[in-house]
Write a structure and sequence with these properties.
The protein has a 9-stranded antiparallel beta sheet with strand order 1-6-7-8-9-16-13-12-11. α7 (about 315-335) packs across α18 and α11 (about 435-450) packs antiparallel against α12 (about 455-475). About 30% of the residues lie in helices and about 25% in strands. By secondary structure, the chain is α+β, with helices and mostly antiparallel strands.
Length: about 775
């Protein structure tokens, strides 16, 4: 078996949703592949709309206690009206993401019809290509973005000398470009800025090197004539990262062009491939060879022939493999250590005002972007998110103090590249939600769980404690003696009271308590591991015991609010009360079976009323079903994601394009095959019956383990566990397993289908049924 790793098409991209993404974490490009008038949409991850803002509402300390009181009295409309002026940001919006420019090509091709056109993206090499034949000449264009050399590269070749002629230029928006000119006969340069004096300035340079023929400048364009092959190098730098961004941009194209195409490609592959090959997924399926003869869009269209009455008439395990591999590719290409985190569009955005600002939306979307990063063996790619948290801390302290008169640090449901922590938008269902920093900080201890890196945990301990400290001050006791938040919301949802009133703002929504429980637990556990428990962690333990626990409501569901309200939209995309099921581990089929059944009822109720209609919501549901150990439902929802919420370029559709669903579903695919919560490594816990045979390599498990698994007829054949930290391993499987290390059998203790054995760091352990 070989894993599907190539997206390919028989036509050029008609729009963004058909174009192919390439990137190095900071520079992104979208490849369209038109024959004559072509372009690559360019992005640089720090091109945002301006500089930092202080948007904290100075009136908030006077008004939020009154708003809290009104909510306790169920005077919802009055509370929400007062919050607009009394709590929301004095400027509604933090900064938003913007495109850089377009790299335009005008080719001079012979007359006639092109044949054998193919456009593809090879995930094994991170190289996109376009090939075709015209008048007896075979042409090829290759596109990639090099991390080592900091350039986007377009290499154009033909199998007949002197066959390549074109013009190339940078085409951007007039309102934020101030210099667009040739520097010499083979280099053009563009610069500009966003947001005035305190905003972000940027520069872009294009260098054209050719074999044979000539290269010259004409106006603001470069022209290649009668060349054998041509390489175009594109660099981009901004003032966000450095003061000398203009000179660095020129240096980037100078150094790349001096190395030459072959050397730059080799350095790109040497960097990218060892990362990509850490993990591989193969799922066998009868008829896979025939399916592989279909282009990627044809395979997606084939699945779209499924109907509600026959939702799985057509299946395609190869497309699931491709989706998994594509998700890891997007992580490697979309964000690297030292870059910004992935935003709503990753780094790929064509709009000056993208949907929802292309920001870091932290009431699930940014967190979902990083769900697969640990389990799919890309742990170091988590660091841009940690860097953003540190950028948010000083702003969040100010927001906590100026808005709520609290210690610690706080953020609401969006932030930007400056770490803005004030409320975003004027939208009652989402804006006043003080949980953004808390949820982000949960990624810190999750990274430790997988890596067992105590020095990392030590360096971030103050960060998670500072996020917790806000809630020590902010929470208050309700009429039942519980400690609750408020004013808050259950993200983006609206409830209906018994009196018929509608509202979003509330006291003590379930998700808030679940996040705080996890945050306090992380602080307590980190202190124990680092041997630094003190009065503060004792206080957190006391407060944690007073948090509301998940409750079962009148429909047998997990309650979303402290009061068992009905939802106005029963099929709402957010299922926030199930945070406790995933990504947290507070609801478990083994430890809390009644709550697990209520979680199932919650999902079924949502789906029966049209839920899961956005890509990211469907992705979250895949992970829910995996945690509930229901492989059939996992598969069903993966198929629905592919048919209803996946564009032809395999990017996720909200709609419009939003990258979080790609990462959420990638995590869900892994979660079906391997889970490791609760100090137990579970092999094939939610394996869909439609995946009877396959293997996966290089998944990571909590506790510092790397796991590879093979199975046949739905039954484990073997697994290999590499111990990075020397921790004791407990492996759950439905049958006892034999464990060997260096060809010697290892003693195993078996209790309730859990196989426990000691490991030594740096050793591999083979498990067989």
């Amino acid at each position: 078996m070989a894993s599907n790793t190539v997206l390919w098409y028989k036509d050029a991209a008609v729009d963004f949703d058909h174009a192919l993404p390439i990137g190095n974490g900071r520079i992104g490009g979208m490849v369209y592949g038109h024959l004559n008038n072509d372009f690559v949409g360019l992005n640089e991850d720090s091109v945002w709309s301006g500089g930092p803002r202080n948007r904290n509402n100075p009136s908030c300390p006077d008004y939020f206690p009154k708003i809290r009181e009104l909510l306790l009295e169920e005077k919802i409309e009055e509370a929400e009206k007062l919050s607009v002026d009394g709590m929301m940001g004095v400027t509604p919006n933090c900064r938003h993401y913007m495109p850089l420019t377009d790299l335009k090509f005008e080719y001079s091709l012979n007359e006639g019809e092109a044949h054998d056109y193919r456009r593809d993206l090879d995930l094994k090499t991170a190289v996109a290509s376009v090939s075709y034949s015209l008048q007896g000449v075979n042409y090829k264009r290759e596109y990639f973005v090099s991390y080592p050399d900091n350039v986007l590269v377009v290499h154009i070749s033909a199998d007949k000398p002197s066959s390549i002629s074109f013009k190339v230029w940078l085409d951007g928006r007039d309102d934020y470009y101030d210099d667009n000119r040739p520097m010499n006969s083979n280099t053009i340069f563009l610069s500009g800025g966003c947001g005035g004096e305190d905003g972000i300035c940027f520069s872009t340079a294009v260098r054209v090197n050719a074999h044979g023929g000539s290269v010259s400048n004409i106006g603001m364009k470069l022209e290649a004539k009668d060349c054998d092959d041509v390489t175009v190098y594109v660099a981009a730098r901004t003032s966000y990262y450095m003061d000398n961004y203009v000179m660095q941009c020129i240096t980037d194209v100078d150094e790349a062009s001096r190395r030459g195409y072959e050397a730059v490609l080799d350095r790109h592959l040497e960097d990218y491939q060892p990362i990509f090959y850490r993990s591989e997924l193969c799922l066998d399926q009868a008829g896979s060879e025939e399916l592989n003869n279909l282009s990627t869009d044809e395979r997606i269209e084939r699945l779209r022939a499924n109907t509600d009455s026959e939702p799985m008439k057509f299946t395609d395990n190869g497309l699931v493999e491709l989706y998994y591999n594509f998700g890891r590719y997007l992580m490697i290409s979309g964000s690297r250590p030292g870059s910004l985190p992935l935003n709503l569009q990753g780094i790929w955005n064509k709009d000056a005002w993208p949907a929802w600002g292309g920001r870091f939306t932290i009431n699930i979307n940014t967190e979902m972007n990083y769900w697969p990063v640990e389990v799919t063996n890309l742990s170091e790619f988590h660091t841009p998110l940690f860097d953003l948290i540190e950028k948010m801390r000083p702003n969040g302290r100010i927001t906590a103090r100026e808005m709520y008169d609290c210690g610690g640090f706080v953020a609401h449901h969006n932030t930007d590249l400056w770490g803005d922590c004030a409320p975003q938008d004027i939208w009652i269902p989402a804006t006043i939600w003080p949980m953004g920093a808390a949820w982000l900080c949960l990624h810190i201890f999750e990274h430790y769980r997988f890596t067992q890196d105590k020095e990392f945990l030590r360096s971030k301990y103050d960060t998670i404690c500072e996020a917790a400290r806000f809630f020590v001050d902010y929470m208050f006791e309700d009429s039942h003696g519980n400690l609750v938040t408020g004013p808050s919301v259950s993200p983006e949802n609206t409830y209906l009271t018994q009196s018929g009133s509608k509202g979003s703002m509330c006291i003590g929504p379930s998700m808030d308590s679940e996040i705080i429980f996890q945050l306090f637990s992380d602080c307590i556990d980190a202190a124990r591991i680092l041997d630094c428990s003190d009065e503060f962690t004792d206080k957190l333990r006391e407060l944690r015991d007073r948090l509301p626990k998940p409750k079962i409501g009148k429909y047998g569901q997990i309650q979303e609010w402290a009061v068992d309200y009905d939802e106005v939209e029963i099929g709402h995309r957010h299922i926030s009360q199930l945070f406790a099921l995933y990504p947290a581990d507070q609801i478990s089929s083994f430890r809390t079976p009644k709550l697990a059944e209520a979680a199932r009822a919650t999902i079924e109720r949502r789906l029966s009323h049209g839920g899961g209609h956005t890509g990211w919501s469907r992705a979250w549901i895949i992970n829910f079903w995996a945690r509930l150990l229901d492989g059939e439902k996992v598969f069903e929802n993966i198929m629905l994601l592919l048919t209803r919420s996946t564009n032809m370029n395999m990017l996720d559709s909200h709609p419009p394009f939003q990258i979080d669903g790609n990462f959420g579903a990638t995590a869900g695919i892994a979660e079906a095959i391997l889970q490791s919560q609760g100090d137990v490594i579970s092999l094939l816990p939610a394996l869909p019956p439609q995946w009877p045979q396959g293997y996966v390599s290089g998944l990571l498990a909590r506790g510092g383990f790397e796991v590879s698994i093979s199975w046949k007829n739905g039954v484990l054949t073997s697994a290999e566990i590499y111990s990075k930290s020397g921790n004791t391993a407990t492996v759950a499987y439905s049958h006892p397993v034999k464990v060997t290390c260096d060809d010697h059998e290892v003693p195993v203790t078996v209790i309730d289908n859990k196989n426990t054995f000691y490991t030594e760091a740096g050793k591999s352990y083979v498990l067989e049924v």
